Amino acid sequence: MFRRMGMMVLAMVVAPGLVLAHGGHDHGTNKKAPWAPRADATGTYGTKSKASVTPVTLKKLFKATDKYKGKLIRVEGVIKTVCKVKGCWMMIKQGKRKMRVRFKGYKFFMPTNSEGYKAVAYGYARKAIIPVRVLRHYAMDRGDVEGAKKITKPKVTVAFTASWVELSKVKKAAKKAAKKAAKPATRK
Question: Lower CB count within 10 Å: N or C terminus of the chain?
Answer without folding.
Answer: N
